[in-house]
Please model this.
Amino acid sequence: MSLSYAATVAREHVHRRAVAEVFVTDTSGTSESGTSESGTDGTYRVAAQLPRGHLMQEGPVLDFSLLVETVRQAAVSVSHRHLGIPLGLAFLFRDLDVDVDDPGALRVGDRPAHLEVGTTLEAQRTIGGRVTGIRFSGRVSVDGRLALTGQGSLMVMTPAEWKSLRELGRRDTVSAIGPLLQSAQSRSAQPPSPARARTVGRRDPRNVVVSRPVLVGERRAQSWLHVDTRHPYLFDHPLDHAPGNLLLEAARQSAAAAVSLSHGLQPSDLVVLACTGSFDAFVELDLPTQVVTEVAELTTRGAVVACSTRTSILHAGRVAAQIDLTMGVTP
Model:
């Protein structure tokens, strides 16, 4: 069965407000015998289209943030359309592991990119059958060419569970960061300005999400998270915390700057070749968040010059998220 790219799915099926931010166009589920699946774990195919003119799409290869968002939308849309998970529940990224198999497949062409996500979903359920989490794995092809493979998981919560988890997380974070915040305020500290776009591998200043990274030692860069809740992609709808795609982008920008400062490569030449991330605590929008990236030695992956990085997203010295990226310069 062929997938359609004629129109996007309903916004609520991918948890987006703007139609322009919906990338999924069709989904299909099949069992091993080829029959249609509904309400069961299984393997699914998802079609998506990425526009060339998206705000985040600045370079010659498809933006990594948009690729991850496509995978997220694929998992969420299948959950609603095929697994029977009702609308109105909250989905929260827990972990992600992605490898770029073919960087050349991600080059932006002369038309919108047609993606196909082949994904296997496994739902974690209570004894009563309610879904509390989704584990997904699969591969993404771009215009028929395998581009990346990966896996990850999402938590699924009722509004009441979400409220309870948020209140607990907020209380713990404020308790830990309060003394440091009061000390900074007593010195009339001002939030740091966002970095210059080119220093973090961006062109559009609107897409900068960290302050200027500064080297501490030879291979450790520090900056601060810059949050702009008016950003139409990162904050497509009101949120009470920093979303996962913002943290991933902060890690990418910090890594690009850190590799540049440590090894002299141009930030704009660096692309993501691999990503492993875990999201363990909420990042509050109104509290200072530090972004710290450690950089390894340069290596080679075939014809690609690569560098491994580890970024920690910190609230009061506590790790809220850890994101390992392999950055590379492709021929």
Notes: The two ends are 37 Å apart (CA to CA).
